[in-house]
Amino acid sequence: MRVMPQGKQGASDAMLERVIREHGxxxxxxxxxxxxxAHDLEDLMQEILMALWRALPGFxxxxxxxxxxxxxxxxxxxxxxxxxxRYSPLPDAEQLSDPAPLAEERVISEQRxxxxxxxxxxxxxxxxxxxxxxxxxxxxxxxxxxxGTSETNVGxxxxxxxxxxxxxxxxxxx
Length: 174
Hints:
Elements: H1 13-34, H2 38-55, H3 65-84, H4 104-121, H5 125-135, H6 140-147, H7 151-168
Helix pairs in contact: 1-2, 1-3, 2-3, 5-7, 6-7
């Protein structure tokens, strides 16, 4: 359960609850793109929710609410990951196994998911953001609006990111 921020200068509880209900899964996926462990994920989600709580009253409808929420989540993710760069990850953190019994297919799927997100986290901030937004189904035009660039530039970022991901995932030589 997420803790709802309290105060007078942000969104109403009902407004924030509705946004969380409608976009919560999206916010979780974005947060995983910028965090590599459950503790950081929880911290980042709290920061995203606080930022949303503060920003929602100012939403003017210049874009879709989904795009607005994504922009806030990605901006918080970038700030969060930059603040965390000074800390190095614990060795062998990825090798901790889940004690719950899982079907072999689920384990393989989760490993692929983890490898992909680990590779995505190694991309440059702009490429990472473009890939994450693309994975969320946004068009190049929508991504360009969010990133403040041209559709052509987004296409170049996505192409370079795909190539880098193939190399990072061992599917292509550098």
